[in-house]
Every structure is written in structure tokens, then in C-alpha cells.
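Inverse folding, one chain.
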């Protein structure tokens, strides 16, 4: 890799700070103040990881609840439930 190309592919501190602020804006109840220190950027990254893990658990829980609901409905209206299942699997 050439030196010029290596410089062009580096991410600047400003770009990193901008990405951190974008992540912060996606977090629920996030403080919208500007981050200027590594510690607060680290905190935002940690909160983001925790939030993603929590969302993943919620999706799993909701999926399980939906599956149970569909199983209970299966006995009532099997055809409609199968159509709904096929739509959800797309």
C-alpha cells in the first residue's frame, strides 16, 4: 500500500467523534451534549453495546411469545396462522 493511499484510508479524530455522536443520538435517553474526551466516547460505545444486547434479547423474547401465540392459534385457524408464519419468515 502506498503512503498516500494509507493516509487516505485513515479515519480522522473528527470522523470518529462524528460517528460517536451519531451513535449517541441513537441511544434512548442519551445525553445530547457533545463528546470531547475518550472517556465519554468509551462510555457511549459501552452503552451502545449494552443497548444492542438488550435489543437482541427483546427480539428473542418477542419471537418466543409470537411463536407461542401462533401455536395457540394454530388449533383455531390453521390456514391463517400458516399464512402469517410464512409472511413473518420473509
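Residues assigned per position:
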Amino acid at each position: 500500500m502506498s503512503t498516500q493511499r494509507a493516509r487516505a484510508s485513515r479515519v480522522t479524530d473528527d470522523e470518529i467523534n462524528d460517528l460517536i455522536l451519531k451513535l449517541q443520538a441513537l441511544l434512548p435517553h442519551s445525553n445530547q451534549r457533545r463528546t470531547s474526551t475518550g472517556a465519554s466516547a468509551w462510555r457511549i460505545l459501552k452503552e451502545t453495546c449494552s443497548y444492542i444486547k438488550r435489543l437482541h434479547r427483546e427480539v428473542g423474547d418477542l419471537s418466543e411469545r409470537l411463536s407461542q401465540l401462533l401455536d395457540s392459534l394454530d388449533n383455531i385457524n390453521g390456514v391463517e396462522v400458516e399464512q402469517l408464519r410464512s409472511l413473518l419468515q420473509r
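The CA atoms of residues 33 and 51 lie 19 Å apart. DSSP finds four helices and no strands in the chain.
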